[in-house]
Amino acid sequence: MLRSPADLARLAEVGAHELEGASAHDVMSWAGEHFGDRLAVTASMQDTALAHLASKAVPGIDVLFLDTGYHFLETLGTADAVEAVYDVTLRRLTAEHTVAQQDALLGKDLFATDPDTCCALRKVAPLNAALAGYDAWATGVRRVESPTRANTPVVAFDVRRQKIKLAPLAAWTDEDVDAYIAANGVLVNPLLSPEYPSIGCAPCTRAVLPGQNARAGRWAGMAKTECGINT
Fold this sequence. Notes:
Blueprint: H1 5-18, H2 24-35, E1 39-42, H3 49-57, E2 61-66, H4 73-85, E3 88-93, H5 99-106, H6 110-113, H7 115-131, E4 136-138, E5 155-158, E6 163-166, H8 174-184
Parallel strand pairs: 1-2, 1-4, 2-3, 4-6
Antiparallel strand pairs: 5-6
Helix pairs in contact: 2-3
């Protein structure tokens, strides 16, 4: 039975206090103990550090992958590998309409003319629908990724969705991620590189320039910096 939003808000306060300075594994273990199968993890399939860590802390955990219809083939292949190798239950979330149907309804290449609406339809709406069946969800957002993520809490109450939101890797540096990947043989998207440190949908991802932050290659040339899932 799902907990009430008021109960979740109170538990988020407890978790934020108890898990201050805790390891990412301890954060996921805490969440697994409190929520069991009402806990999910989102995964972009850029690297799979969080999915791997979650599979060790909460075996069989649901991993939510937003299959937008615009992904690189390498990203889809990484999702397939995660499903085959990790002790998780992969759920592929899709939008109400296919890309072709969306083109017919709203015009071709909505990502170029109205990227906010494209993300809302192909990412935010499917995730919100899926999260209705959970009490808590974990994201791989890290503070060092961009200025908009610099104050990401490890545990918080997601007011918009009325769920507990966890960011177990919030305090991890890029070096921390690299070390975890190397130590644990973590699956990584073949595209991930210094030129492509942040991988999203193919039409909205380009190589970054020297000195730019990791997410500068996302929606390049636009004011947009986030898809809307974490804002």
